[in-house]
Amino acid sequence: MQEEKPKQLLHLVFGGELSDLSAVEFKDLESLDIVGIFPDYASALAAWRGKAQQTVDNAAMRYFIVHMHRLLDPQN
């Protein structure tokens, strides 16, 4: 019997300094911090929390989790 692998639900974690705190517009696109691509939400959330904690003193710095699996397969 073949063991079934869990479905990959890819998530991207990235961040950068916002130019305006009321909108999601980055001050400098070339300095975005691409943390990585993760195989599930739990590991992406752990990476997001770590980066958010490291930059807690900079109010303009924001990190985001993008659900890449939703972009790759929008019908599911």
TrEMBL record:
One Pfam family recorded for the sequence: DUF4170
Protein's name in the database: DUF4170 domain-containing protein
